Amino acid sequence: MIRLSPAESTSMSDRVRQSVALLRRRGYALAPDRLGALCIGGPISETDVRWAVAACGELTVAHGLVVERSAVARADDIQRRATEHDSTAGHYVGVTLRFVSALVALAPFIRGVSIAGSLASGGFRESDDVDLNLIVDDGYRHLAYVAVNLLGLVHALAFRGKPVDDLTRRPLAPRLMTANLILERSQCRPLARQDEDMAFELLVSTPVYGLDAFREVIEANPGLLDHFPQLACMTAPLLIDVHSGPCLPRWLVPKQLDGAARRLGETAWRYMQWTRRHRPEALARVAFVRSTMHPYALFEALATSSGVAERC
Questions:
Q1: What is the SS3 assignment for the chain?
Q2: Nearest-CA neighbor of 234 among 75, 2, 53, 69?
Q3: How far apart are CA 26 and CA 46, in angstroms?
Q4: Which pTM value belongs to this model?
Q5: What are the boundaries of each domain within the chain?
Q6: What are phi and psi of 13, to 5 degrees?
Q7: I want to staple 175 with a disulfide (CB 3.0 to 4.6 A). Which of 57, 168, 245, 264 is the partner?
Q8: Among candidate residues 189, 190, 194, 155, the one with its CA nearest the CA of residue 174
Q9: How many CA atoms lie within 13 A of 210 on its CB side?
Q10: In this structure, are residues 223 and 82 in contact, taking their beta carbons and an 8 Å threshold?
Q11: Ordered per-residue pLDDT tens for the chain, 312 residues
Q12: How far is residue 204's CA from residue 207's CA, in Å, rounded to a whole number?
């Protein structure tokens, strides 16, 4: 049962308005029924959403999406993304599940993986990459980063004909699998941030491995439920079972290797900044993504010193 939250003392219109603003910051919007399910403060009905929109002069429904009136011009593009998502997401979900199965078999220090970003939110285009959130054992963040990127490069060689954009274009193969957020278990108890953006990141992501690890995060951070009590009912319809196949022995990847992995990751990070030096829009987009992950984005010191940003 979903409990009431302090946010429910706010008027219905304010809650809907805050939810729409949060979605706008992330670059998308939702239909009234879906917005109601993901509303700040707890789920509300589609009818309540429509009443709230009618009572709030700042909001409207355009192309079937609830948006701010100042953002009506973007509603058509968002709807096109949703339409493309419906036609392409199924294939890439299957691709992602196979990748995650291989990843956790090779990286036994990974405790949880969820699909995030556009593939989880309903706005996936074929030129997008797939964002993954990871929970790992303490001392393994950089090893996890390197594992995702090295295995991701090998995996992407089979997708060299895939459409790309400024964010996913790479010399050898497209960027297909991305480590969006990597958290060590101790960083989750408690999280340094329990704001609505962090709560929403967990809400819209879809666990595909290690559901218990994500439930532990919610239990250790009850402040997240103040924003989205829906988190108490986290489910995992795409959960995979990797215990039936061979896995790399844990002793082959001691945490002492994390320092070397950090140096390798920093080198790769610097290279990616260099390849994007003439694409300010791409840099601005990943700078925003990193800001939503602060203070958990990898290589933050390098990002600050170079004046640019890259997803972890």
A1: CCCCCHHHHCCHHHHHHHHHHHHHHCCCCECHHHHHHCCCCCCCCHHHHHHHHHHCCCEEEECCEEEEHHHHHHHHHHHHHHHHHHHHHHHHHHHHHHHHHHHHHHCCCEEEEEEEHHHHHCCCCCCCCEEEEEEECCCCHHHHHHHHHHHHHHHHHHHCCCCCCCCCCCCCCCCCEEEEEEEEHHHHCCCCCCCHHHHHHHHHCEEEECHHHHHHHHHHCCHHHHHCHHHHHCCCCCCCCCCCCCCCCHHHCCHHHHHHHHHHHHHHHHHHHHHCCCCHHHHHHHHHHHHHHCCCCCCHHHHHHHCCCCCC
A2: 2
A3: 22
A4: 0.89
A5: 6-76, 88-262
A6: -65, -40
A7: 168
A8: 155
A9: 23
A10: no
A11: 444 454 443 588 999 999 999 999 988 999 999 999 999 999 999 999 999 999 988 999 999 999 999 999 999 999 999 999 999 999 999 999 999 999 999 999 999 999 999 999 999 999 999 999 999 999 999 999 999 999 999 999 999 999 999 889 888 899 999 999 999 999 999 999 999 999 999 999 999 999 999 999 999 999 999 999 999 999 999 999 876 678 899 999 999 999 999 999 999 888 887 887 778 887 787 777 777 778 888 877 655 545 444 444
A12: 10
Helix axes 141-156, 72-106, angle to 10 degrees: 100
Among residues 276, 310, 308, the alpha carbon closest in space to that of 293 is found at 310
Residue with tokens 């192309």: 63
User: Which residue in this structure is represented by tokens 């949703």?
Assistant: 82
Structure tokens at 182: 């990597």
